[in-house]
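Shipment paperwork, digital attachment
Item: protein structure file
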Amino acid sequence: MVIFQRRMPPVVAGLIAATLLLSIACAVDARSDGQLYAHLALWPERVWAGEVWRLATWPFVQTTLLSLVFGCITLFGFGAELEDRWGSARMFGYMAAVLTVAGAGTALIALAAPEVMAYPHLGGWARTSAIVVAWSLQFPERRILFYGLIPLGGTDSVTAWCALTVVIALFIGFAPCVPELLATGAAVLAMTGGLRGVRTILGKRRGKPRIVRDDDDPRWMN
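Attachment content:
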């Protein structure tokens, strides 16, 4: 039997609750041929038609059970530790900023890209990117076992996550991945202090990113 002893901080608890509530509601609605998925998606052409709530609802709707479980575990495993370190106010501000950039940026890009304008977005990859990037840079001595095989931490973990996001976009197309690409980029910029920090992530050691290092013993997160 697995017993979770970590305290659930309020922002992470709210994110998990919203994800469970909206995802389950959409799944139940879909069984009755409802349109709740469509009404909550980040759909740029509907955003520009005045349905601005879509900018807030889309990251909290998971379309499969596996993505729902993975998203909630990521929030709990990484997000709770971040909020414990940062405090709830900073955690809320960071998540709100990254997801706002992802949603509003997608709507703006759609003005110049018809394929983006017509594409509805759902799912928590953007939110997961924000959490993983922040956790990796906040606790650079820690390690993540990617797919249970490859141990990475700190900037290596961020580089791998960014590369994975780009590769997915190359395989499935630009339009479906715009929010995820924007969220990943915004998270890196927020955590490194801007383009100077990004150069460090890419291996050009001309400046140091603003990373708060953890003094605890390294752990492994899978």
